Structures are given as C-alpha cells and as structure tokens.
Amino acid sequence: MNQFDYIIVGGGAAGLSLAYHLGLAGLGDRRVLLLDQEPKRRNDRTWCFWEIGAGAFEPVVARSWDRLWFYGEDAPAQIEIAPYRYKLIHGSDFYRYMDDWLATQPNITRRYGRVERIDDHADGVSVTVDSQAYTGDWAFSSIYVPEPVPPGYTYWLQHFKGWEITTPTPTFDPTAATFMDFRVEQGNEVRFVYVLPYSERTALVEYTIFSPALADQAFYDAGLKHYISGQLGIASYEIEHVEYGVIPMTDLPFARRPSPHVITTGTAGGMTKASTGYTFQRIQRQSRQIVASLRSTGQPFYPEPSFSRHALLDSVLLNVLDSCRESGKTFFSQLFSRNSHPQVLRFLDEDSSLQEDLAMMTTVNIPIFLSSALDLVGRRAWKAVTTGAHDVREAT
C-alpha cells in the first residue's frame, strides 16, 4: 500500500497543478501520492496572471479584466491587453476546487505530515513522512530551500501586503484593474501598488516591493494607508481581509533534476519569473511539459535549451536594479509606454520571438543594460576562473 508510481511532495499550487494535469491527460490510472504538511483551508494568497481564452482553472477565476491602468513616469495610461485577460484566483477557492476534484480521483492518495527526507535508489525513490516511508518510481518536489548566492547572481525578494477593503459608497471601477502604480516613494527599491476591484465598493489593494530585504509590517501598513487616502481619495473603509507574501526573485540556477528520480517543481524548480515574480502560469506550463514527457517517454524529464535569452535578460535586469543603475519605475515605464501592451505581456511570458525581443530592447536604456550585461559576464567569468583554480588546488 506504500508503493506508488508518482509521489508529489508539496500540496501548493505546483503540486496540486501537477496532480490535476496528470488527471486531465489520462494518466490518472497511475498510483499517485500527494504529500503536504497540513490541509489548506485559508485564503492565504491570491494568484494573478494573464491568459488568452479559458485555462485549466477557469472555474475558479474570481475576477478578470481586459483593461488595466499603469501609472509610471508619464501620464496615467489605460492598457488594452486583448486578446489577453488579466485573471485572479483566490487561494481558498483553488484549494476547495482541488479538494472536490481529488475526491473523485481514486488513484490519488493524500497524506499529511512533515517530509523528513527524499532518498533516491537504483529503481526509484523513497519519501519519509513522519517516520513512514513511501516508495515510487518518480518524485516531484516543490519544497524550496534557498541557496547561497555566488558572485554574478542576484537574490532579491518580492514582498507584499494587501488589504481587501470595502467602502460605504461606490468608489471603484470594476471593469479595469490597476496593474502597477508607481506613485509611491521608491527609495533604492522597486515599489508599486496594484488595485484589483471586485465591485464598485470592494477591492484588493496591495503594496508591493522588490528589494534584497524585507520590511517591517508597519512599513506596509503605513504605505497602504497613505496610498488609500492620498491616491485613491478614500477616507472611510473597512479591512475585510489581509494577505502577506514573499516570493524569491533570483537568477540563481535551479537544480531541475537534483537526483536521478527526482524533479523539482514550482519555485523550487525555477518557475518563478526572476524579473517579475509571476509563477502560476509557468507552473501550468511545466506541469504540461512533465505530463507530455511521461506520456511519450515514460519519464518526466523534458528537454530544455542549454541557453535561454529570456533568463539572460532577467539576469541583466536584476543586475541593473541591484546596482541602482536605473530604477524599476523607469524601466517598466519605458517598457509599457514604448511598446504594444500585448507584446509586452508576450515578452514577459517568454513567448516572444528573438526579433521581437531585440525590437523591445531598443526601447529601454541600452547603455545602462549593456553596462550591466558586461558586469554580469565579468562576475560570472571570474567565478568560473576562481572555482576552477580552487578545484585544481583541491585535486593536487
């Protein structure tokens, strides 16, 4: 009873999405074990993403918009994003939907407890949970453990606090969300607010920061109060719900296959976009790739290009921000004011062509980005040289 085909370690967005795609692809006849620390019931997070048409989780999309507001260095701009729609999913709705779906899947077993270890063996893998060992052919782990940052790489955080507020009178336009509002003090960080209106009287207002370190809770609270009263002009409101989150924004290389029978997923597998923090749609893409590989080859490891220009561009942008060569407010203002808005979203989704990418790069500050690119290459080359020298000394 403890032998499975696939063991999914972690029951968040990555683990649940993979289980769902396995079922959609007709691989539900395999025995699947889904492990998590504890049941998820709270509305602990909100996932936002853009998408064309209906996606796999369309039944739990709470709100969507085809018009967005952007407030940068120029005049406020309304962004038309068709054929995309900007979508929102509440964590509690997602978990409830998956609970109901999993109850209809007889080949998926759910267990709760603390994962103590994952061991690879010649013929598969074993996962120990609260001293109980489970074995399988393959394991998929979304457990993220931060690594030390070597020279040439950047480790920032996207951290945010949001208030879902209700006003006594109609205040919001529910047909358009605020994507980025940079009308807040920047410091040497990237700070903006987004507003997701649910109705004329209710909206989620989220204060977001990209930076190397976290802020005190009082800092987010002060920023939200100031923005709601100053920019939104709201004097009276009730806070219905509070959410807080931290997402790594790093160009560190992730071990997608840490051992022969284990593949990492979600943030642990490098699915968080280094330059924006968006993760949900990248998780869906990875889940589809894993399932396609299982169907065609019997193993989950799909081929990846040895070089990714989008990953390189993410690294360069993080270097620009970390070195304070240019502000995030300036970069995103240039990106959205000088390019087609759907094209920018396609670029951020890494669906753009090389020609489109080159054209887009001409709309930002080329000397600054070239300087950061050279700095990046130099740091990584120096790391390679010093690491090689160290390896030689160890060998002798």
Helix and strand element order? EHEEEEEEHEEEEEEEEHEEHHHHHH
End-to-end Cα distance, whole Å, is 50 Å
Number of helices: 9
Mean pLDDT: 93
Multimerization state: single chain
Q: Report strand %.
A: 25-35%
Q: Roughly what percent helix?
A: 25-40%
Give the overall silhouette.
globular
Report the strand count.
17
- Poorly predicted regions are 389-396
- Tell me the radius of gyration: 22 Å
Largest sheet: 7 strands, mixed
Q: Structural class, please?
A: alpha/beta
Characterise the protein shown here.
The structure is a single chain. The chain is an alpha/beta fold. It is 32% helix and 30% strand. The protein is built from 9 helices and 17 strands. It has helices at residues 13-24, 91-102, 217-230, 280-297, 309-322, 328-337, 341-348, 354-361, 366-395, and strands at 3-9, 32-36, 46-52, 61-65, 67-71, 77-80, 84-90, 108-112, 115-121, 124-129, 132-141, 155-166, 177-181, 190-197, 202-211, 238-250, 262-264. The strands form 3 sheets. Strands 1, 2, 8, 9, 10, 11 and 17 form a 7-stranded mixed sheet that branches. It has a 7-stranded mixed sheet with strand order 6-5-13-14-15-12-16, sandwiched between helices. The protein has a 3-stranded antiparallel sheet with strand order 3-7-4. The longest helix has 30 residues, at 366-395. The radius of gyration is 22 Å and the shape is globular.
Give the tags.
396 residues, seven-stranded mixed beta sheet, single chain, 32% helix, alpha/beta
How would you briefly describe this protein structure?
This protein is 32% helix and 30% strand. It is an alpha/beta fold and 396 residues long.
